[in-house]
Write a structure and sequence with these properties.
The protein is mainly α. It has one domain. About 60% of the residues lie in helices and about 10% in strands. It has a two-stranded antiparallel ribbon with strand order 1-2. A hairpin with a 2-residue loop joins strand 1 and strand 2. The protein is elongated and about 60 Å long. This is UDP-X diphosphatase-like N-terminal oligomerisation domain-containing protein.
């Protein structure tokens, strides 16, 4: 299955989020909100989720759009936990 729609939706959302973070103009803010709505429509159309639900998820993300990375590790010695 071709998932280009998912990549497009995510890219449009990132552009909109970054624009909303740095814009000071009212008209630009409206344009970025419109771009965010288009991204939610794309994702909703192909995922069978309501656009309003996706738009609510988008609105919870603020600031510059960056990849979210989580790293976890543990150190053991002789059946003892030294660091988590």
């Amino acid at each position: 299955m071709d998932l280009r729609w998912l990549e497009w939706g995510k890219q449009l959302e990132a552009i909109a989020q970054n624009g909303l973070t740095y814009t000071e103009g009212v008209f630009d803010r409206e344009r970025y909100k419109s771009l965010q709505a288009i991204a939610s429509e794309i994702l909703a159309t192909y995922s069978n989720v309501e656009p309003t639900y996706i738009l609510d998820l988008f609105s919870q993300e603020v600031g510059y759009a960056t990849p979210k990375v989580a790293v976890r590790g543990a150190i053991f010695r002789d059946d003892r936990i030294l660091l988590v």
